[in-house]
Amino acid sequence: MSAEIAITLTVNGERVARRVEARRHLVDFLRLDLGLMGSHTGCEHGFCGACTVRVNGAIVRGCLVLAASLDGAQVETIEGVSDSGEIRDLQDAFIARNAAQCGYCTPGMLLTAADLLKHNPAPTRAQIREHLSGNYCRCTGYHAIVDAVAAVAAKRNGRATP
Amino acid sequence: MKAPPLSYVRAATLSEAFQLWRDAGPDARLLAGGQSLLATLAFRLSDPGTLVDIVRLHELRGISQVGGTTIRVGALATHAELGRHDLIRRHLPLIAEAVPLIAHAAVRNRGTIGGSLAFADPAAELPACCVALDAMIVARNAADERRIPAAQFFTGLYATALRPYELIAAVEFPIAKPGERTAVLELARRSGDYAMAGVAAKTRLAGATLIEPQLVFFGVGDRPVVAERAMATISGQQALPATIAAAQAALAADLDPPADRHGSGRTKRHFARVLLARALARLAGLDEARAA
Amino acid sequence: MNEIADPGSIDRPNSYIGKSVPRPNVKKLVEGRGQYVDDIVLPRMVHVALVRSSLAHARITGIDGADALDVPGVLAVFTGGDLAAHCAPWVGVLAHLKGMKSAPQRPLPIDRATWVGEALAAVVAETRAIAEDGAARVRVSYETLPAAVDMGTALEAGTAIIHPELGDNLCFERVNETGNVEQAFAAAHKVVEATFHTARHTGVTLEPRSILADYNRASGKLTVYHSTQAPHMMQGVFAKHLGLPEGDVRVICADVGGSYGIKVHVYPDEVAVAAIAKIMGRPVKFIADRLESFSSDIHARDHRIKGRMAVDANGRITAIDIDDLTGIGPYSVYPRTSAVEGNQVVSLVGGPYDFANYHAKTAVVFQNKTPTSQYRAVGHPIATAITEGLVDLAAEAVGLDPVEFRRRNLMADGTYPRTSAAGLKFEGLSHIASLDKLLAMMDYAALRSEQERLRGEGIHRGIGLAAFIELTNPSPFMYGIGGARISAQDGCTVRIDPDGSVVAATGVTEQGQGTEAIMRQIVAEGVGVPIEQVRVVTGDTLTTPYGGGTWACRGTGIGGEAALQSAIAVKGAVLAIAGAMLQAQPETLDLTNGEIVERGTGRARMPLAELARIVYFRGDTLPADLPRELIQTRHFITKQYPFAFTNGIQASYLELDVETGLVKLLKHWCVEDCGRVINPLLVDEQVRGGIVQGIGAALYEECPYSSDGQVLVGSMADYLVPMAAEMPDIEVGHVETPTRESLLGAKGAGEAGTAGAPAAIMNAINDALRPLRAKVLAQPFTPERILAALGKV
Questions:
Q1: Closest chain B residue to the Cα of C287, Cα to Cα
Q2: Would the CB atoms of B10 and A71 count as touching at under 8 Å?
Q3: Of C289, C723, C792, which is closest to B190 when you measure between CB atoms?
Q4: Domain C3-34+489-636 maps to which CATH number in 3.40.50.720, 3.30.70.240, 3.40.50.920, 3.30.365.10?
Q5: N or C end of chain A: smaller count of CB under 10 Å?
Q6: Which of A49, A81, A113 is the last residue of a domain?
């Protein structure tokens, strides 16, 4: 049995204290310990991006971070940014543009897209594709996702949709 | 797959880290960014027993200029920090250029330079860049600190000159000299993948003449490979087609790439020849001339 | 006939069919509040990890689970022998595929492992991590047997026969022949020939295969939460093989994280999980991890195809002859079988073209590799690559531009119905209109001159075309006539609740493609209510009409027609009641936007909610003999044609780095004709997603094996899937030729992209290579293969 570690951290603005198995990664912690099922495990070895969440404001692969190492951290998930309304415009654009089909990649894709727009408010299509290139989507072919992100960037910048 | 059963200890100070490491034994692994380690644990390829988390050690952080000639990068500097840090962008453009080639944004936010060098993946960008830039790896154990030239640090496939209970504390880079030009190029089938082949290159230019050129290939051997013969061929020469062709021919003796999923050794050597020509074009400003 | 039949007028009142309406069920997905199988947690739930074979072919001499049982939290270890008494074996054959054979397969094999990755034992534990700890301590003793690995030698003497009782490694063989091929080749002006390879690859659904089976001993009921495309089929499978009455099995399929055909099959490990749930009497969950997915999800498209084409002096195709060989794994997959892909290839080759002489042979052989079966666009991308590859070779041989060659040979519009050389019946296609539209969208002439100009600068660009047909709306001729309990019919129940809102329950399922949105549009328009008032129920065998689910592009064409007919029936029932209440003839009334109105004037007479209130709560005020059935069910099945074929054409524009062999995709176009388009937004994204899956096959995806049958991909680091940075923008256009078999007129659209993309990419690469006298015919077109073709490595 893996050793258990006591951690206290903030998840979506709520303070949580738990004892976690040392080997448990952040996505399993969110899903199994906190019941936050919005972050998905797609590969568990850092290649698919479905588990993308934010730790201390930066996006990370949830499967490549141990929960035990997050004592004192601020974690935000798709549920948190949905409730806060922070990425409402991105979510609306994904719906309007049918940029989510099965939805399994979508939480990670949205958090990655939000990260791009934070660092680069006016990305080109190529830059959008590059920034999302660590997030696998089997359904859409990516075009609609790029459209949706470009539309939000344009709207945030007060321009018409390109 | 889930990681095998583990113990986890977190160090608050460097000395505590060495103590915890000793207590856990030689199989224990240091956990920094974890971007390679946790992936390998998910394959259950190793069973380290204990992870010693060093990610909070202030002693291993920070990017600073030391005197007029050196940039010191703490081992825990993440790829993302390297990519946006003003000192790196100004004085180590090769590193700044390499960062976007490393995996993807979410990985660059956690992955550290120390972790990358210690993992010593032969296809990784930063080890080759460190060799090309004549970086010094600052290694620490509980008692001492020593400096290992990057060219001697990588000793084989995923193997380094680090001794038991020794870690990377920092990397020291000589600041780029006036007239120095660098380039990192790689061939990857998809953005963010480990390269099929890559090269980190550096030279000074006297007019059009290449002075002390460095060509360090990655993804074509068991470690970063310094193309000594190719470098000798172009040193003191201009990057003219005949010189480039001679350097490409010289690569045959510099490289003996093992086959991998991207192709045979012969294919990888071909990639290296192409990269060599493109890197020299970059270094000599030929591509800029063509663009203009 | 209903006014819905007119596809030209999408601006009718209360109309949704033909409009880009967003999907009602996506909001929860973008907020991370969907419910995939792994999100479901039940009391006393336990987890399974599987011990998988490390050898391609071996006798199992022992499985020792004692050490595993010592791991705290491990509850049980099951072997094939343990499950044998609880689960009957199956054989994956279809009677109409003459001569097909396969061997009985069990959820876990009893004495023999037949591929690397085959599940041999199941460890049950309190958590998945502990189950894996246990699995790592199960010791399997093997006696290695010779493996049949290379399909090229599968039928040769000296190759191990995987199932000796079958006599050889031949699963199925078929020859499809029309006219006189030999004569046509003898008389040909030009003959071109080539050998093509398509690579064994797999689906990589982002949500792995997932199942949670819960058996209640007291009620005797098995409830299975399953990430599947075919809940009713799985209900029957679990019932039959676990010895339960079908009515005691309920399959619930909530959100599915991608399927693409991967999740329409019966997987032995999933049946094992259901059997274990029945034995243990508690909920048992199995979520495949990515590593085991690569060796246990079905593979597909492992084909070597020799092809030749005869052309006359006018550049007209006179004959096609192909010889297809495919390796499928040690068992034919149940119940769809592993022979359908090869069978499709010999039916679909040459599909878009007008020619008389055809000979196509497929041989489907067993191998000690992961079983293959139906994956998105089954057989189509293979057939299209062969056909379009030969077409480009033929165009070159007779000195015609690829567009002109296609124009001369594509089946002419307006010549339908007709039957193809391969024996396919086409109700109505639009190849020439689609070609013209494509050329206009891409500005073909301008691209050709750009290509020419850039060649002068040493930049090598290529333009590749690929015309295709796609089989959709299947009838029982696909599976049912072969004895498989797979429904080609589908049903929909539409009811009006007391508040005037509408609930539609359909047998087709939602995999993310937009089924619920499509049904909502159809039902809202068919009944005559605002779309917001329609809720759609899918994916529950207890509450939806029996149906086939999602496969072969049938959801909209079959399920949609059932929904439309059922909605129209409900509307009729409403108007009959309204007539009685308003003392009007029902024919003088209409239902629009939730209001009973006077037909013609549109004058509002009564809200639907008021009618529903009276029906449900004040039925005493209605005439005693008035029927008041505000719920109607209709079913639909195609009867005139075995399949509703669609058609289309794709084009790729790319740039080839001739020094590195790397391909940069610049743009991709597709024009497709899926009949009536219900929702352009959804159809376009189906096409785009399908194209990128096809691009994956063309450029990246491959499950290579070592000579001893070890699969050489284990993770997403080795198995490359298409990612955003390398994919092109994709422009989609439509031609609409509705099927007359249904009022709705819709055909399928989900596989067209995948059908044509690999051929378009191949032809574009070869177009770029043509001046360099090189070509590539083996997918995936890796840098090394391209460099080898160029003689550089």
A1: B1
A2: yes
A3: C723
A4: 3.30.365.10
A5: C
A6: A81
Bridge-based pairing of strands C170-178 and C357-365 is: antiparallel
By C-alpha distance, which of C285, C230, C232, C233 is closest to C262? C230
Tell whether A68 and A96 lie within a shared domain. no
Residues B170-229 pLDDT 10s: 999 999 888 899 999 999 999 999 999 999 999 999 999 999 999 999 999 999 999 999
Domain that holds residue A99: 87-156
Q: What is the CATH number of the domain that holds B123?
A: 3.30.465.10
The partner residue sitting opposite B189, judged by closest CB among C715, C783, C793, is C783
List, as own/partner pairs, every contact residues B27-31 make where C-beta atoms lie below 8 angstroms and the sequence separation is at least 24, other chains included: B28/B52, B30/B54, B30/B118, B30/B167, B31/A66, B31/A69, B31/B55
Please judge whether B8 and A65 are an interchain contact, meaning their C-beta atoms are less than 8 angstroms apart.
no
pLDDT at B288: 63
What's the structural domain count of chain B? 3
Residue A162: inside a domain: no
Please check the confidence at residue C4 and state whether its pLDDT lies above 60: no
Read off the tokens for C331: 């068992």
In a domain, B91, yes or no: yes
CATH no. for C37-145+205-296 = 3.90.1170.50
**Segment holding B152, helix H or strand E:** helix B150-153
pLDDT at C11: 57
- Identify whether the C-beta of residue A40 lies closer than 8 Å to the C-beta of residue A52: no
Alpha helices (H) in C260-360, listed in sequence order: 268-280, 290-296, 340-348
> Rounded CA gap, C152 and C375, in Å?
23
Residues of A in contact with B43 (CB under 8 A): 45
Average of pLDDT values for A35-63?
Answer: 98
Task: Give A111-153 pLDDT, tens digit per residue.
Answer: 999 999 999 999 999 999 999 999 999 999 999 999 999 999 9
Write the CB contacts of C249 (distance below 8 Å, at least 6 apart in sequence). Answer: C221, C222, C223, C224, C235, C238, C239, C242, C541
pLDDT of res. A2: 66
CB C371 within 8 A of CB C269: no
Domains C3-34+489-636 and C299-476+640-789 share a fold: yes
- CATH class of the domain defined by C299-476+640-789: alpha beta
Of A60, A69, A115, the CB nearest to B31: A69
Residue in C closest to B188 by C-alpha: C662
Q: Distance (Å, rounded) from C-alpha A104 to C-alpha C256?
A: 8
Percent above pLDDT 70 for chain C: 99
B1 falls within a domain: no
In a domain, A58, yes or no: yes
Is there a contact between C783 and B191 if contact means CB atoms under 8 Å apart?
A: no
The domain containing residue B167 runs over which residues? 62-174
Residue B12 maps to a domain: yes
Which residue in chain B is spatially nearest to C786 when comparing CA positions?
B267
Sheet of strand C46-52, all strands in order from the earlier edge strand to the far edge:
C74-79, C119-125, C46-52, C284-287, C210-216, C221-226, C249-252
C98 exposed, middle or buried (CB, 10 Å; 0-12, 13-18, 19+)?
exposed
Residue A140 in any domain: the answer is yes
Assess whether B188 and B232 both reside in one domain: yes
**Residue A44 and residue B41: Cβ atoms within 8 Å?**
no
CB A40 to CB C22 under 8 A?
Answer: no
> What pLDDT shows up at residue C1?
33
Question: What CA–CA distance (Å, rounded) separates B98 from B79?
Answer: 9
pLDDT at residue C5, rounded to an integer:
46
Residue B193 within a domain? yes
| Interface check A39 vs C, CB under 8 A | yes
